[in-house]
Amino acid sequence: MTQRQVAWRPARGPGIERVALRTSPAFIADALVVGRRWAVTYRLRCDRAGTTRALDVAVLGGRGVRLRHDGRGRWRIDGRRVRALDGCRDADLSCTPLTNALPIRRLRLAVGASCDIRVALVAVPSLTVATAVQTYRRLAGDRYRFTASRGRFQRSLRVDRDGLVVDYPGLFRRLR
């Protein structure tokens, strides 16, 4: 079992994220993210194949949301089946770079290869859930081009050996 602690801070403004992470045999994260006007906790669990199976997110002092994936492409939000998320294998939580590691680890792209994916995107602090299309292109051993919002958003992400973001220009920087 591989365990580690990871922390990020936003590139602008106050905030911090602290994550207790287990990367093997399955990927499990427990975290606290503090922003300027909100704080959330989340627990994320992936199966051995790297597919998101569960994401529980709670706004401190507010509401929470529970996403569950059955491993066959079907999702439930707070126990209710949501067909719009069918086919998504990853969850993306808007307040953290941790969820970028999910497709990076699962896809295992060769340098120069790319893949379009659909994700269940959870916006923070509203906790609304929607489907989003994202593209990951591996530029080098430790670099990926991340594209979202129909190409309107692009960043070159630097990652470590576990696929965790080290630098997300303009948004997050990992603390040592």
Describe this structure in words.
By secondary structure, this protein is mainly beta. The chain has one domain. Helix content is 4%, strand content 56%. The protein has 1 helix and 15 strands, in the order βββββββββαββββββ. The chain has a 15-stranded mixed beta sheet, with helices on one face. The radius of gyration is 15 Å and the shape is globular. The protein starts with a strand and ends with a strand. The model has no long low-confidence stretch (mean pLDDT 95).
Residue ranges: pLDDT <50 for 5 or more in a row? none
Name the strands of the widest sheet in spatial order. 8-7-6-5-4-3-2-1-15-14-13-12-11-10-9
Shape: globular
What structural class do helix, strand and pairing data support?
Answer: mainly beta
| Computed CA radius of gyration, to the nearest angstrom | 15 Å
- The tally of beta strands, per DSSP, is 15
Helix-strand topology string: EEEEEEEEEHEEEEEE
Q: Could you estimate the helical fraction of the residues in percent?
A: under 10%
Count of domain modules: 1
Describe the largest sheet: 15 strands, mixed
Total DSSP helices: 1
Terminus-to-terminus distance? 22 Å
Strand content: over 45%
Report the average pLDDT across residues: 95
